[in-house]
């Protein structure tokens, strides 16, 4: 899979560039087919981007936000990705389709969430861990080999079992947007861009892939501004 890599100065520039890209793609998709379907990963990486999106022109009433992954934890728990996603969206009238991690039968809940996914996801936002994981696709977890389900459960990782989109679900993305910051991401980023499938992130397939990295993580000269890259 080919990745378009863009290196900017710092995490703030990554957030600004990502927000401008998302807003422009959202407007284009709504104009083209009336809806923008956007899957957002957990962790800290989306928060700054959503803060910057508040300054952008986004047709939120036509935006459906899905979760890429979620920790199995109670509603409102600070470890829940949903808690921070809703805080980040604020009053934006987007539809949020939350992963049902509080259901009694988690396997059935994962299957139901898979059925809720559209045939096409306009954009999937992903981060990258120092170990090369993305979403909740972690090295050596059996979930990496799931090919017959769109959503599956992981083994416990850093204190929580998780629900995650699988590789077949991520392959529904028309566009993947990677946001990668920090010197601890330099090696996994290099492996991702090289197409190294021995790291979980390297096995993600999509129609198009834009990698936004800060200078600490990225390879090559950084742009100092936070203007958006070329239109998708």
Automatic annotation (TrEMBL):
<feature type="domain" description="Glucosamine/galactosamine-6-phosphate isomerase">
    <location>
        <begin position="10"/>
        <end position="206"/>
    </location>
</feature>
<dbReference type="InterPro" id="IPR005900">
    <property type="entry name" value="6-phosphogluconolactonase_DevB"/>
</dbReference>
<protein>
    <recommendedName>
        <fullName>6-phosphogluconolactonase</fullName>
        <ecNumber>3.1.1.31</ecNumber>
    </recommendedName>
</protein>
<dbReference type="GO" id="GO:0017057">
    <property type="term" value="F:6-phosphogluconolactonase activity"/>
</dbReference>
<comment type="function">
    <text>Hydrolysis of 6-phosphogluconolactone to 6-phosphogluconate.</text>
</comment>
<dbReference type="Pfam" id="PF01182">
    <property type="entry name" value="Glucosamine_iso"/>
</dbReference>
<dbReference type="InterPro" id="IPR039104">
    <property type="entry name" value="6PGL"/>
</dbReference>
<dbReference type="InterPro" id="IPR037171">
    <property type="entry name" value="NagB/RpiA_transferase-like"/>
</dbReference>
<comment type="pathway">
    <text>Carbohydrate degradation; pentose phosphate pathway; D-ribulose 5-phosphate from D-glucose 6-phosphate (oxidative stage): step 2/3.</text>
</comment>
<dbReference type="InterPro" id="IPR006148">
    <property type="entry name" value="Glc/Gal-6P_isomerase"/>
</dbReference>
<dbReference type="GO" id="GO:0005975">
    <property type="term" value="P:carbohydrate metabolic process"/>
</dbReference>
<keyword id="KW-0378">Hydrolase</keyword>
<comment type="similarity">
    <text>Belongs to the glucosamine/galactosamine-6-phosphate isomerase family. 6-phosphogluconolactonase subfamily.</text>
</comment>
<dbReference type="GO" id="GO:0006098">
    <property type="term" value="P:pentose-phosphate shunt"/>
</dbReference>
